[in-house]
Amino acid sequence: MRVHLHNDVDSGLYAELLLKIGDGCLEVDAEGYISLSRGFCDLVENDVDLIAHVFPELQQNLSCDQWLCARAILAPKNEVVNRINTDILKEVQGEMKEYLSMDTIMNTELSTSYSVEFLNSLELSGVPSHNIQLKLNVPVMLMRNLNSPLL
Predict the structure, then answer these.
(1) Concatenated DSSP letters for 7-27?
(2) Interhelix angle 78-91/47-54, nearest 10 degrees
C-alpha cells in the first residue's frame, strides 16, 4: 500500500486517521486487518509489486538522496520490515556481504544466565539484528551510535 499525502486540508484528516490506526481505534476483522478507503492508498498484490510501485527504477535512482527520501514503505512489525528490506536488497546489483554483531559477553558472571544463541535471536526495536546483510553503495539508516567497547 502506498499512502497519498498532500499539502492541503486532507493532511489533517490523514494525520487523524494514522493516530486512530496507531491507537487501535479502527474496526478490525477476524484476521486482524483494517479496511482503508481506495483514496487513502494504492493496492498491490504482493511485496514485489509494492517495492516496484514505491521504488520504480530502483537501481538507476539508488544514489539520488532526494528520490529515496521521497519514498517509504511502512510496516507494522519488524519481521515484515526485514522481509521487505531483504527483497529490496535483492533488487540491487552487487555482492551481498554478511555482518554479525559482537557476541562476546563482557561480564562473565552473567554468562550462564543467557545463551549467546538466545541473545543473537532477539529482535529489538531500534537495534540492528545480530546478522545484517549489506551491499556496496546501498544506503543504511543509522538511528544511533552503537559504538561497542573495545575488547
Answers:
(1) SSTHHHHHHHHHHHHHHT-S-
(2) 70
Q: Are 61 and 108 in contact (CB under 8 A)?
A: no
Q: What are phi and psi of 93, to 5 degrees?
A: -70, 150
Residue whose C-alpha is closest to residue 3's, from 91, 105, 73 = 73
The answer to whether residues 109 and 79 touch, using CB atoms and an 8 Å cutoff, is no
- Residue 41 belongs to what H/E stretch? strand 41-42
pLDDT digits (tens, 9 = 90+) for 109-119: 766 677 788 88
pLDDT digits (tens, 9 = 90+) for 4-17: 554 556 678 888 88
Nine-digit cell string for 12: 489533517
**Which residue type sits at 120?**
N
Name residue, grid cell 554483531: 101
Rounded Cα distance, 79 and 85, in Å? 10
- In DSSP terms, 135 is beta-bridged to 96
Q: Judge whether 82 and 129 are in contact, CB under 8 Å.
A: yes
- Per-residue pLDDT band at 135 (split at 50, 70, 90): very high
Give the N- to C-terminal CA distance of the chain in Å, as an integer: 45
CA 71, 73, 76: angle at the middle one, nearest 5? 155
